[in-house]
Specification:
This protein is mostly beta strands. The protein is 0% helix and 46% strand.
Length: 478
Amino acid sequence: MSPNKPRVLLIGIPLAIALTASTTSWAAPVLVSGPSPFASCNIGGPGTIYVNAEVEPWLGVNPANPSNLIGVWQQDRWSNGGAHGLVAASSFDGGHTWSQTPLPFSACANGLGYERASDPWVSIGPDGTAYSVSISFNQSNNNNAVGAAVSKDGGQTWGNLNVIIANNEPSLQFFNDKESVTANPIKAGVAYAVWDRLELPNGNPYANLHTAAFRGPSMFSKTVDGGLTWSSPSVIVNVPSRQQTIGNQIVVNSQDGTLYDFFNLITPPFSKAAGKVAFIKSTDDGATWTKPQIIAGLQTVSVTDPNTGEPVRTGDIIPEPAIDPATGQLYVVWQDSRFNGGQYDEIALSTSTDGGRTWSAPVRVNTPSGRPAFNPNVRVNSAGTVAVTYYDFRTLAADNTATLPTDYWQTKSTNGGKSFGGEVHLAGSFDLKTAPNAEGFFIGDYQGLDARGTAFVPFFVQTNSGNTTDRTDVFAAP
């Protein structure tokens, strides 16, 4: 989730512990990020700035050249929302080596003139055109926008900078949040951006959303010319007062072109556990959309340090979808406490084999450990294998209050999501308490994962345990 603006529901020590014998260790992950290109920038206060701290990565694999990968992330996270800017990294050897370049979405990057940027996203079309988007905003006032840029050289340079929507003062009552972009996998030059747009009362734009009239519809824009221009934003989920969506994300059926937009539908009474995993679909390339269909309740109880109760900020209200490129089978994962009686979050998955008409009962994906699991992502490879990645606290000792050992995992399903196994240990243990504190220990509301042929490439953040000058870095596991 993005900046700390009006929105709903914002709520050096050895760590190694033996892992269970049933797990497999991956090769050492590859370091992707480097020193901050914004380290000398003094724009964006007030707040605590964590220079060299990278959070919230996302990844795209180039279908025109699968050796080319592009990742994006927030660079220099602020404690109270957003970052100095966004950075892109490109690889041309399948993720083994990387180079970085700033994205032009903030003043620190000499791009859009906003003080901060957040919610990095990237998606690559069948012709190799890469689309990146941002929430760009000011901390000093309520100016905010959704920005877009394009790369034609595999992520090394970015141009065609566009503002898809801007709400600048004196229009105080609108705030755009949690955008994503999806390139059409079968139509070169076509991509879709979606986000939620909070609308608050004119007379009190910073009113408490729990008591004031507000709404947060889903918005949609598309490009059909490779990012040169974007269509005028339109509402695709129209909600009444005191309702909103968040986490909008489109997947496309490569067989028939159907678009599916997944999101969390938030309705009263307000609590994180009252959200609903929902979607809409369009069979005419976004011109018209169905009404929302509910898949399941999103029964998150948030994440805390099990031993101290300290908050951990995660993607607890953000569902993550995927689609099988060969069959069109749909998958969605999210954080949920239903498997343990509402005590802590684990990873739930539901799937549909009939275009979203019916959905399976949620199944638990993570290995049960009696501890929270969080920030899931899901992808399907060319062989139909489903992979899910997530963090958990299984290596935290019961008497450890000094550190918060955290590990990153991948598990797979070869039977269409009915069951998961073959768990792989990707990274850790690392101390999550070293992460930036942004309403809790924070490494992002989401992490990256993409398929490269029959392989998967996790793209994620871990902390540099105990290092307060370089708290986090981005890694790939190619």
